[in-house]
Amino acid sequence: MHSEESLEGNRGLPSAPSAGQNLDPHLRRYAARAAGMTASEVRALFAVASRPEVVSLAGGMPNLAALPLDSIAAEVAGLIASEGMTALQYGSAHGYPLLREQICDVMALEGVTGHPDDIVVTVGSQMALDLVTRIFCDPGDIVIAEGPSYVGALGTFAAYQANVVHVAMDGEGLVPEALRQALAAAAARGQRVKFLYTIPNFHNPAGITLAVARRAEILEICRQAGVLVIEDNPYGLLGFDGQTYPALRSMDPDNVIYLGSFSKTFASGLRVGWALAPHAVREKLVLAAEATTLCPPMLNQMIVSRFLATHDWKGQIKSFQLMYQERRDALLGALEQHMPAGCTWTKPDGGFFVWMTVPEGIDTKAMQPRAVTARVAYVPGTGFYADGFGSRQMRLSFCYPTPERLREGVRRLAVVLEQELELYRTFGPVAQHRITSGPQTPAPDTA
Amino acid sequence: MHSEESLEGNRGLPSAPSAGQNLDPHLRRYAARAAGMTASEVRALFAVASRPEVVSLAGGMPNLAALPLDSIAAEVAGLIASEGMTALQYGSAHGYPLLREQICDVMALEGVTGHPDDIVVTVGSQMALDLVTRIFCDPGDIVIAEGPSYVGALGTFAAYQANVVHVAMDGEGLVPEALRQALAAAAARGQRVKFLYTIPNFHNPAGITLAVARRAEILEICRQAGVLVIEDNPYGLLGFDGQTYPALRSMDPDNVIYLGSFSKTFASGLRVGWALAPHAVREKLVLAAEATTLCPPMLNQMIVSRFLATHDWKGQIKSFQLMYQERRDALLGALEQHMPAGCTWTKPDGGFFVWMTVPEGIDTKAMQPRAVTARVAYVPGTGFYADGFGSRQMRLSFCYPTPERLREGVRRLAVVLEQELELYRTFGPVAQHRITSGPQTPAPDTA
Fold first, then answer.
1. Which residues in chain B have Cβ-Cβ distances shorter than 8 Å to A38?
2. B70 to chain A: which residues are within 8 Å by CB?
3. Helical packing angle, A176-188 and A212-225, nearest 10°
4. How many Cβ atoms sit within 10 Å of the Cβ of residue A220?
5. Contact indicator for B380, B148 with CB cutoff of 8 Å
6. Quick one: residue B132, left, alpha or beta (phi over 0 = left, psi -120 to 50 = alpha)?
7. How far apart are CA B261 and CA B121, in angstroms?
8. How many whole angstroms separate alpha carbon B183 and alpha carbon A168?
């Protein structure tokens, strides 16, 4: 679910109306919810960042180099030749029954014991997140999320006019006491909190994992407050050294909706994800899914099902782990070697992302055009907050470039940071006045 | 877009809450829009209707028998082996650029001259309909649709709490004067009409095509009223004898959003559809799509693109036309031969569906369980109206069964109708009191 596409999902932040909107004769016809649908300021820079000469530490695309394309091609050909009348036909909105059974085996690796009937297969777990928000959130409802949080989730919450309240994280993830205070404050304001949206493992963008000791406490806080928990877990099986953590869903099946995805463990382009939900909620999700896409593509579901049945999918995940671990090591090593004093960053034990905080006086969004000019790209931190925070933060991705490219990207970024710091020492916080806003461009097909 | 899945999309009509809802501990947490998300009463009967011994005149599944599975399998294998790193990776929410160019060639067959940049590729045209409704409809807004209309569209409108006003059709389609009156009545009530949703060609479920002479008039009425036109055209290339009609979009590019699909002309299971919209609207649709699924599956888009590039796709469409025409002839011939006096039906010149009206005293929903007992299934007319009309109508599909099965189905249906008429003559309209409501069951994977 978490890809650089999500960068354009950043509609929780204010953004100047584009020329297209100003000239839009249909402007007065739009629904109120459409007002929040404006293109991210990073969109234009993102297209630039996708140029080959730029080392992109911005993208969240999984690296598919480890996939056995020839054997997958042979499997898919056999599937279409032998079961094409099913694979190319409509299916149910609930999802392919065999795949739903296999998904239970995948979730069992993190301690989840679910029933196939309580799973709904979706077009990527982004669609599961959309459906959950659709059935639960009225305009003005509160969604609690970690600060920072997945930008694509912030975009979905904004599309349903839900208001996001961020709760602080520390090195062990979401801070229980901060969650208590946020819930108490919302209650004091008479606001309806619909759910906690959390990414417990190898957080995007924070690169932090929720300590196991905190999990039961956070579940108890939400249960006491009558607040659902949406557990978004696309990276859970990408723990380095094969480390996995017990899913929140495994600890409180009745109050947790679990969102899963094959985008990071198999192939993002198939767009196969799922939600595991309490039975009555699952029924609502299926009806909402029918109104959205009728059904997820049968071919894609059957490809994933065959892959799980005929390939060493656990070995495949292991090879992904090793590849990403090598890249994580390269990025962290280069940061240690090159970053100027005052920069701090997280040290993820899985997933795709490192979250860096830069010294006072640097605005990461203002600095980004100069970074891209220096042929390195990152995502400014403000995109991961619904409240404008994050101007001293940035997300660095280690999932896609080679270790050598990662080291080169960090070298380039360190030079830009040194120059910014020198400017700040000399002239003060002028960086604050150089925020640029790029024109709208189509999203790149790959970046 | 129009499949029997849409039968479960019937959420515009009142429906008793299911046991699942009554026992749902999350009931108080749902958004207001979720209240309309209840399973259709025909769901259970639909599962029964999918049994092999039942001749289903209910389903709207395309018949894929004419597809060259082996050559498609070979093409897809080649695609994955040579372009797998792209086909299995995230794409853009806008859609695969080459496919968007090819879609322009497809639409040109109906006189549409669109720009690839103004197309957004969606997960079936159902998703395009969902996105259009999402960006335009606030709760309480009015959508005008033909009476009857596509049940899946009624479900989507209900999911966004839009209110549907039906406008009458005659043998030449939507009646312009009835549209004027509906717009005037809405204006008099101070209601906001957001768009006209229309299926101009080989209408689902009515089997009627909008007369060419009426098209400009209807477009002018909507333009004068400041009302957008949503042209849903999944069957337009399935006109018998190769007959096509000029798309509404070709006559008024600035005020028509065109929805297209490869589900009926290639393969429904790939879930590849599109919207062609005025530029500013297209930008909103892309942003809404990003928040919904991030991007449509790249593999599916590239499969369709290869099929269009390497196969005789026009010849493929021709073979679909001939297959459906033979089935249409079989159904109409059998209706002429077997239906009791007082039954009337439309005579489609393309598409999948015949709309039949039965004599007074027969309630098609009440009769349906007995029809299924007699091993024939249809869809009661009420599902195609948001206002409860249609109790004397039914939709008969000729797309899937063989001509022989179609004739047998009509013979069985005629016997049931004769028995109902005899009951009515003897006892009066007792049928009105035998409406049944089936329990919820998962939708069948195929039916």
1. 287
2. 81
3. 10
4. 14
5. no
6. alpha
7. 9
8. 52
For the stretch B346-382, what's the b/e string if a residue is b when 16 or more beta carbons lie within 10 angstroms of its beta carbon?
bebbbbbbbbbbbeebbbbbbbbbbbbebbbbbbbbb
Specify the pTM: 0.91
Residues of chain A positioned with their CB less than 8 A from the CB of B23? 280
Query: Looking at the complex, does the CB of residue A442 fall below 8 Å from at least one CB of chain B?
Result: yes
Hey, are the CB atoms on B280 and A26 less than 8 Å from each other? yes
Nearest to A71 by CA among A312, A400, A319, A318: A312
Enumerate residues 6+ apart whose C-beta is below 8 A from B293: A123, A124, A126, A127, A130, A271, A293, B93, B123, B127
Residues whose CB falls within 8 Å of the CB of residue A443, separated by 6 or more in sequence, listed in order: A5, A8, A43, A46, A47, B92, B93, B94, B286, B290
The string of pLDDT tens digits covering residues B78-89 is 999 999 999 999
Q: Do A9 and B300 touch (CB under 8 A)?
A: no
Q: How far apart are CA B295 and CA B96, in angstroms?
A: 10
Q: How far apart (Å, rounded) are the C-alpha atoms in residues B51 and B217?
A: 45
Residue type, B23: L
Q: 3-state class of A198 per DSSP?
A: strand
Give pLDDT tens digits for B292-337. 999 999 999 999 999 999 999 999 999 999 999 999 999 999 999 9
d(CA B214, CA B172): 8
| Per-residue pLDDT tens digits of chain B, which is 447 residues long | 344 333 333 333 333 344 444 568 888 889 999 887 777 655 666 677 778 899 999 988 999 988 999 999 999 999 999 999 999 999 999 999 999 999 999 999 999 999 999 999 999 999 999 999 999 999 999 999 999 999 999 999 999 999 999 999 999 999 999 999 999 999 999 999 999 999 999 999 999 999 999 999 999 999 999 999 999 999 999 999 889 999 999 999 999 999 999 999 999 999 999 999 999 999 999 999 999 999 999 999 999 999 999 999 999 999 999 999 999 999 999 999 999 999 999 999 999 999 999 999 999 999 999 999 999 999 999 999 999 999 999 999 999 999 999 999 999 999 999 999 999 999 876 544 443 333 332 232 223
Of B89, B136, B280, the CB nearest to A61: B89
Packing angle of the helix pair A151-159, B279-293 (nearest 10 deg)? 120
> Among B370, B398, B435, B396, which residue's Cα sits nearest to residue B48?
B370
* Residue A313 to residue A318: CA distance in whole angstroms: 9
Query: Does A25 contact B278 at a Cβ distance shorter than 8 Å?
Result: yes
| Dihedral, B197, B202, B207, B208 alpha carbons, nearest 10 | 70
Nearest to B137 among A31, A93, A295 (CB): A31
Q: Two tokens at A433?
A: 């006045």
pLDDT at B42: 56
β-pair partners for A163: A142
